[in-house]
Amino acid sequence: MKLSELLTRIDHSFLQGADTDITDLVYDSRKATSGTAFVCLKGYAADGHKFAASAVEKGASALIVSDELDFAPPAEVAVVKVDDTRLALALMSAALFGYPAEELMTVAITGTKGKTTTTAMIAEIFEHAGIKTGTIGTLGIVYGGNTYKTDNTTPESYEIQKAMRDMLSASCKAMVIEASSIGLKHHRLEGMTFDVGVFTNFSHDHIGGVEHKDLEEYLFCKSLLFRQVKNAAANCDDEKYLEVTKDFKGRLLTFGFSENSDLRAKNDRLLSDGGFIGVHFETEGKKTLSLDVGVPGIFNVYNALAAISAVSFFDIPDRAIIDGLRVAHVKGRVEPVPVPGNYSLLIDYAHNALSMENVLTTLRQYNPHRLITLFGAGGNRPKVRRFEMGEASGRLSDLSVITEDNSRFEDVMDIIEDIKVGLAKTDGKYVVVPNRKDAIRYCMTHAEDGDIIVLAGKGHEDYQEIKGVKYHMDERELIAEIIEEMKAEN
Question: Which fold does the domain 3-96 belong to in CATH?
Answer without folding.
Answer: 3.40.1390
